Amino acid sequence: MSVCYITFPMTKIEINTSDLNICLATLSLYICGYGLVSYVIKHRLYLSEPLIATLFGIIVGPAVLGWVDPNLWKPEEDRLMGYKDSLTLALTRITIGIQVFFAGVALPKKYLKLQFQSLVMLLLPIMAIAWLVCGFLIYELIPGLTFMEALLISACITPTDPVLANSITKGRYAEESVSPDVRDIIVAESGANDGLGYPFVFLPLFAIMARSSEEFAAPNRNLSGIIARWIYDTWLYEVTLSVVLGLLIGWVARKSLRWCEEHHMLDEDNFVAYGTGLSFFCLGFLGIIGSDDLLCCFIAGNSFSWDDRQRIAAEDAGFQDIIDMLLNAGIFMYIGAIIPWYAYNDPITGIVPWRIVVLAICILLFRRLPWVVAIYKTIPAISSLKEAVFIGWFGPIGVSAIFYVQVILGQLPKESRDQVKKTVEPIVYFMVFTSILVHGITIPASKVLMRGVTLTRTLTQTGQSGPEKRRSQDTRPVAIDDIRRIGVATPLPVYHSKTGRRISSSHSSGPGSTAVNSQVLSDQGPEAGLAPAVPEERSVAFQTPSQVPV
């Protein structure tokens, strides 16, 4: 904390530039400034909130202006590369827990049951392939890492991010161009696979620990011992137990809420606070017993809104949009401020600019897109190749990746190699920044591209001359003005004035049928219940050339 004084003749003002004061002032500056131009950014420029918040965090962070430096808020050991950062772990865990809970609430009625096959295909084979592909790319491009260490780093960027997924599935572009089925499956996948990242993290982690840690007894340091512990600790205790507890917590919360509502004991204003409290309870209780709190939050949220009443109430309240705004502003500004830019030109770790840029491009291209397109016919929620390309491309890497980095750094034995400790943060942080940037500008870039294509076609058609122009005129469809121009009489359709049905008449064909129809109507009068479909003054357009005045 820095304190200085400004002295005036009659008084002295104390200037307190503490980290908290600067952080609050900077955060409020962003929120208020963004709020003033949010419509232009979101609905005209189609830029995502996380992108703007991350860029703002980079600008005010130590890399540019130096107004905010989150590293100064941490204990000295947490500032060092390769050590667990408790502050980052807590912030990312709370953010993801709230987001995945409301992602579960936002899904339609009984969605996990109805789209079970689609979720299984996206969560198991797609995640497994993405994990192996990213591990292979990291192993080939970053020197000094074993393949198991590369798989450990790859596990961090395997899950998609629910915070970034919200920016894709909401807003004007999503409502106009993305079907509800595609939006729902993106939300469901991003909510579920955050918790399912644990098996991909702990399999290579157990393999590394078996070589260099005393946590594995000597008889269990073989492959069978590693697999057995992985199945018991990860799949049974963390994944399965968290699913069961999430279903139970959501069911009890839904029934108790319904009972209190029927007995007029519930204040409607506390509904959203009730849901937020449930997400905190899942985080706290599952954290106490050491199970998968993120997966529990998602399952509890969907179980809580199983009958769709809570989803509708949450949409009517509009509180989730406020939560998204505040979380996006806070966490992505923080991420932008803590990206270790100094670590991207380090010959000791092998992370140099060309390697990290090539790695980011390859991961964006080959992490999900080819594999979703290859198996999309086995995913009922995806009905076309276009939707498969959209879902395969929009699998953003975000807050969950940084969360798993801190989980890994907290679990790695002290005697493990320094190379994996010193490379996991720079690699994952750069992948997160690249994903935020690329996925954040994909929609506006596609809009600009489509406008360019449309303009090119317009200029091409306008610039036609000679035989091409005459050919296009000769082959264009015949319009009603052409018929009027050549003097061909066209019959007026006749409708019944009471029933509104069209009446077919033997007089409605051949030249001069319009005059016949008019004569029939004039003879029968309005009591006949017939009315011409076009006002009478338009009949001059159907006169023969000899009748048209010059």
In short:
The chain is mainly alpha-helical. The protein has 25 helices and five strands.
Structural class of the helix and strand makeup?
Answer: mainly alpha
Quote the distance from N terminus to C terminus.
92 Å
Name of the CATH class of the largest domain:
Mainly Alpha
Tally of DSSP β-strands? 5
Share of helix, binned: 55-70%
| Shape annotation | globular
Q: Write down the CATH topology of the largest domain.
A: Na+/H+ antiporter like fold
Give the integer mean of the pLDDT values: 80
Low-confidence blocks of residues: 505-550
Q: How does the SSE layout of this entry go?
A:
Elements (H helix, E strand, L loop, with lengths): L2 E5 L4 E5 L2 H18 L1 H7 L4 H12 L25 H21 L4 H4 L1 H8 L1 H17 L5 H10 L5 H8 L2 H6 L2 H16 L1 H16 L10 H40 L8 H19 L3 H12 L4 H9 L1 H20 L14 H14 L2 H7 L9 H9 L5 H13 L6 H45 L4 H8 L5 H7 L7 E3 L5 E2 L9 H12 L5 E3 L18
Antiparallel strand pairs: 1-2, 3-4, 3-5
Helix pairs in contact: 3-17, 3-22, 4-11, 4-14, 4-15, 4-17, 4-21, 6-7, 6-11, 7-8, 7-18, 8-12, 8-21, 8-22, 9-11, 11-15, 12-13, 13-15, 14-15, 18-22, 19-20, 21-22
What does this structure look like?
By secondary structure, the protein is mainly α. It has two domains: 419 residues, Na+/H+ antiporter like fold; 63 residues. It is found in: Membrane.
